[in-house]
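Quick one, tokens below:
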């Protein structure tokens, strides 16, 4: 056994801390069940490329600040790498590495022809002016000119970035090439070649996954109750789409706390309230205010964590009463909680499947840009729904075949696909 391999010793299980190890502990279980050979294991666990750049930016007060920027391409075995750009003070190379690997598995699970990447800049965009953010984004794009490309590495928004930053990236990249190249980035404003349906794509995928899982568990949607943690893009749109289809949403939450009404919450009214209330549910009176964490332990059929990572842990997983968890957020369940959920026979639809509707419609955006054509909303939704349903079924079948959880089933589907492709392509 080569000394750089820990193939027989799965990575330690982490609740918090190094996110790369947390990802690897799931990867290891799946790799062992699959009987992945050691050479392929070592190839798939190692990121292809890690780029760290220093970005000097003149701030509005005339001082020059130097920011650190990252881009990690975990894999381009399946195709050009794909992954968002995060602006946050916690951004560091370990986090970017873990998120890049997650993108590889996510793209493979939904069978779209992309590898995985992630980028980020350690900064606090809330404390910066629009001009400072624009200069930072353009400096980052210029530094990554040889990394990005519609056939190489296609960024997208992540925490702290959105369509505005993607527009600056596209413009900077296009200027350097002397022509408009909108397929270099997704998540753009509609007028720059963004796709219809992108904003609600992740929530819609969560809804489709929830229905697919309810069917397996024989939960009648019209009698089902559901709690949703997080009321941002993913949480509120998942809640709205489920509510529209007859699922009773009894609890919602955001950073201001959780709101519970066992009779069901009028979700369009809650969204309207949030939109007229500086984006928060604070003061929402159509439901009883409860402690934020209590939402996780309510007597509901379905729980959708759609806020942040590591909310379901070894310390609280035993209190969960839901029969089904659908992970809208990335990494909401810590590796050590997986076992407790499995013992309690709670079905958990993992993040790399449940929230992959976003990257799927990003892929459609790229396809439309390359075709120079715009699809209608109906086509985007039909095709993404089909991909989400088919992916759920593939993962469900893999989990059944290997007698494991949906999470490990999803990793098995992903690793098997990337490994097979690697074998055909070959190495040196
Ligand atoms: P967002 O910023 O729009 O919303 C986050 C929501 O979570 C807000 O309502 C915020 O108040 C709430 N929140 C924060 N801390 C909380 C806490 N402790 N308890 C309860 N609520 C809390 O973000 P988003 O785009 O909806 O992303 C949410 C999650 O989904 C993240 O993990 C993100 O990585 C993941 N995700 C997002 C997309 C996408 O397309 N937006 C795609 C895939 C995965």
């Amino acid at each position: 056994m080569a000394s750089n391999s820990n193939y027989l010793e799965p990575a330690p299980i982490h609740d918090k801390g190094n996110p790369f190890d947390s990802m690897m502990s799931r990867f290891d279980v799946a790799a062992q069940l699959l009987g992945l050979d050691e050479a392929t294991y070592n190839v798939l666990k190692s990121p292809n490329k890690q780029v760290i750049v220093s970005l000097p930016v003149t701030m509005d007060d005339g001082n020059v600040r130097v920011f650190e920027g990252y881009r990690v391409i975990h894999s381009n075995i399946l195709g050009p790498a794909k992954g968002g750009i995060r602006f946050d003070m916690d951004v560091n190379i370990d986090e970017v590495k873990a998120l890049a690997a997650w993108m590889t598995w996510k793209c493979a699970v939904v069978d779209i022809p992309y590898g995985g990447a992630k980028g980020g800049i350690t900064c606090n965009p809330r404390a910066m002016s629009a001009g400072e953010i624009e200069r930072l984004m353009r400096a980052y794009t210029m530094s990554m000119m040889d990394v990005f490309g519609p056939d190489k590495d296609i960024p997208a928004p992540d925490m702290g970035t959105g369509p505005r930053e993607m527009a600056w990236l596209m413009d900077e990249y296009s200027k350097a090439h002397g022509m408009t190249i909108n397929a270099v980035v997704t998540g753009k404003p509609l007028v720059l070649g963004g796709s219809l349906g992108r904003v609600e794509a992740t929530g819609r995928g969560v809804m489709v996954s929830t229905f697919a899982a309810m069917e397996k568990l024989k939960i009648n949607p019209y009698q089902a109750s559901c709690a949703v943690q997080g009321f941002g893009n993913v949480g509120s749109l998942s809640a709205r789409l489920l509510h529209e289809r007859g699922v009773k949403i009894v609890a919602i939450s955001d950073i201001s706390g959780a709101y519970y009404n066992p009779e069901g919450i009028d979700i369009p009214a809650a969204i309207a309230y949030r939109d007229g209330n500086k984006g928060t549910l604070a003061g929402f009176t159509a439901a009883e205010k409860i402690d934020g964490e209590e939402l996780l332990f309510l007597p509901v059929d379905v729980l959708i964590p759609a806020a942040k990572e590591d909310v379901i842990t070894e310390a609280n997983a035993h209190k969960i009463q839901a029969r089904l968890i659908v992970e809208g957020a990335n990494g909401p369940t810590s590796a050590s909680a997986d076992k407790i959920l499995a013992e309690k026979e709670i079905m958990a639809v993992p993040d790399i499947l449940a929230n992959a509707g976003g990257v799927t419609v990003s892929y459609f955006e790229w396809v439309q840009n390359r075709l120079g054509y715009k699809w209608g909303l109906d086509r985007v939704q039909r095709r993404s729904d089909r991909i989400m349903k088919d992916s759920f079924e593939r993962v469900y079948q893999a989990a059944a075949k290997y007698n494991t959880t949906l999470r490990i089933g999803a990793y098995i589907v992903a690793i098997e696909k990337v490994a097979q492709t690697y074998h055909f392509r070959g190495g040196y």
